[in-house]
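Class prep. Protein, please:
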Amino acid sequence: MSARSTQISYLCFLLLFSFSAANATEWHKFERDGLALYLAHNDAVRAGELLNALLIGRNEIRRKLGGAPEIPIAVYLAPNEAVFRELTHGRLPHWSAGVAFLESRTIVLQASADNLLQVARHEFAHIFLHAIAPSRVPVWFHEGVAMWASHEWRLRQSAAVFYAVFSENLIPLSEIDEVLSFPSAKADLAYTESLLAVSFLIRLGGPNAVVVMLSELEADAPFEVALFRVTGETPREFERRWRDDVQARFSLMTLLFSPDLIWLYLTLLLLLAYICVRLRNRATLRRWEAEDAAEELTLQLRVYRREDEQ
């Protein structure tokens, strides 16, 4: 897989400049229930299937965010990277797979992106977040909520956090505002930390913490005030406790003794046992083959000896 597909590569919330589809591509529009899909090829069958999947994802994100407002959204599926760069004005890092233009409520996706529908759900989350709370919020919250709403988590991300904790290279949440300038590996860590921060927010504020936060922000509460009302923490206190929590959860001792990893250990033990049995069986077969060859040679010598005696 390409670097952009293996990273958590959804830059959306910062692109507030206007969107324009004025390029050489001839777009074909397919629309239903407030969602317009633009394809470079007039493929009605594929458009219908993709539009259905996108509508399901959009509605799922709306429910996850507590019933976000019904707003029209346009989705452009760029057939190749050149068209994607043209539609996004060439302002994205090379590892990006999707983008949302918040003011125009337009999403641009790369057709070749892995997990295309998950990327789309992530972008829908950014569109709805901006519609609910257009005021300034930290990047970690915007990205973390989008990842949480679109169910993004991979084992590889856990490994990245373990390494960051071990090497003391966790990124301060305030620095995630500069994620557009990060190389892909650091950006991947920044997105993962954002998700962990939102998960920690939910642990402090309860299962409805994100919805309550969005309600506070929709009512024009400053982010710091909304965070305090939900978690009882100032931004500085929240980040300190979050950092302590991450360091505790992703320490070497946790990796070795966490009960959550017992199935991983059992799987590894079974795999190791299977490999050992296979190796032992191969050795046994080789021994039998050697014994059969020796017996056959002995038999041949006996036959030859008897023929000589005759």
The beta strands are 28-32, 35-39, 73-78, 98-101, 106-110. The domain at 1-132 is CATH 3.40.30.160 (Glutaredoxin).
